[in-house]
Structure prediction request, 669 residues.
Amino acid sequence: MRPQARNWLLLAPAGAWFLFMLVLPLVVVLVFSFGERGPAGGYVPAFTLEQYLNLPARWTAFKNTLTLAPVGTMLALLIAYPLAYFLAVRANPKWRMMLLILVIVPFWTSILIRSYAWIFILGGRGIPSLLAMVGLENVRLINTPFAVLTGIIYGYLPLMVFPIYVSLERLDKRLLEASADLGSPPWRSFMQVTLPLSIPGVATGCMLVFILLMGEFLIPAMLGGGKVFFVGNALVDLFLQSRNWAYGSAVAVALVAIMLLTVSLYMRFVRRFSDARDDVSLM
Amino acid sequence: MSRKSDFISREKFMQELRRLEKGSVTRRHFLGVTGLGAAAAVLGATMPGLMPRRAFAAGDIGDRVVLATWPNYHDPANFEAFTAATGAAVQVNVFGSNEEMLAKLQAGGSGWDVFVPTNYTITTYVDADLIVPIDTARVPNYDPAAFEARFAAPGTVDGKLYALSKNWGTTGFCVNSKHTGGVKVETWKQFWNMTMDGFSGRTMVHDYQLTTIGNALKYFGYSFNSIDPKELADAEKLLIDAKPHLFAINSDYQPSMRNEDAWMSMCWTGDGKQLHTDLPEIEFVIGREGGEIWSDFYAIPKGAPHLDAAYALIDFLMTPDINKKEALAHGYPVADSRVNAMLPPELLNDPILYPAADLLSSLEFGAAATLTDPNRAELMARFKSA
Prediction:
């Protein structure tokens, strides 16, 4: 078999999967977004921009998603970076594997069950009752944006920790020695050597978390008490409650468009930040 | 498959099902959105693994039957008995709203054999050609004369019988009387006014357009089912004004009521009964202005893959003796006089389950128009995203 034919053959399963599971469904969504809602729900073929013109009706959902997703990503990064740094650089190698496993362990339980646990931790009998003991009465945590952020950070932290850990772990220690030999205090070595070299991990982690957060619906529904409404929640309602497939498709297309735009801007920013080095290829 | 593994997986399934039954999941619960519905579907999907098993009854109806229903709505022991008698395992899919059931059937390929729609949705299913008429010859245990017409009638559309009455109930609200300061709470007007006053941050409403909008309409004395734009605008204003004072918009209100994060919530009969039994200070109220009365049905979707098993299951559940066990397990009222004759009097005299006639008379059945009215759906969406 000629090498080229063999390559195509090996690519065929992935290509077919990509085509049938990703490209074609997206085309369907795009087509539906120009249609109309059937009298009892569903989809009726049409060509109208009505659904797109109606997008402002979901402005709050977009606003909530576009604020809480980046904020959640940033907070997850701020918490994950020191943790990953500790695991990769400072932790005793004897314990490292054990500690890494501890980061993964929560993933063994469904996020649904873990979110339910947070309902009780943040609910009136949880942290607020402890705060009441020290005199802070009537603190409301559950069903607030704060609760949603807490759930988001808790749920997505491992996805941020691992890429950063990998990039820090591969870091060539000799570079740090050289930096020290050339007279850099530790903070400066960190800023000029460690941090730039870990940017690929940071970028990958942020991307993973941000993209997943943009489509999140479970955590806002459970910890936001239905009052913190994400685009994901709007989509669930449009398809499962009001069965407005056309409008739901338009919202989905808008979400994908916003995501493509933010992610490409973000990648350009990261590339520039890391001086477009070869080893910073993100994809 | 060996006998042994058959036995173990069966046990495991029943254990899981009981957990679901005992847990805090409630009727019309937020299942779909939270993903519990998916979890339950997965749970149900373990069922085919238990089988195949030889059928004992005359005639082979296949090895399984798929039932789409609500949480806490059956006696698991009855399903075991059905499987033992017929060889068909009951695969249960649990749902959180009628809208979701309709969405699933509209999308096609649901794989359901029997499902449990509520009165107001049946005409929509008939119009959309999604259900098939019931052949009563195949349900010998169904006796139309035994059913209270008020609850059984919505099963007949254009003279054809499409659905058989399962249970009925009401939608009111539950209130924790520890926090009312002795004030008697008995109207929707009080429900909304208290929410925006002393109960601020303590009230829950359903994540369900029919009841949340319907009970806001009752504040103004409008019909629970109104689709009049002006009346809906009034209801929307009330909902938006009340929203900052709500504890949550969620149909899973039992956990929050139980741990006193919430003091008041829109509430279905069965949940009201369960809450009141465990915590007597939680009272169930039917708003004086009215509200919803509902009845649920067994129906067969078009293209049911196991039609024989579907009829066998419905007939089995219509057997008065079996239905009695169902009622004792879930506690919802039955419209079948043959079953009621067998139920203990304290259940039949319970004021939560069987409200006084004057309260009942003000209640309305949900109207088909509310299910498909795009304005109500959009109003709910605006309320949730406000």
The mean pLDDT of chain A is 90. The interface with chain B takes residues 37, 39-42, 57-58, 60-61, 110, 112, 119-120, 123-125, 140, 142-143, 217-218, 221-222, 225-227, 229, 233-234, 236-244 of chain A (CB under 8 Å). Residues 56 and 62 of chain A are 9 Å apart (CA to CA). Chain A has one domain: 60-243+251-280.
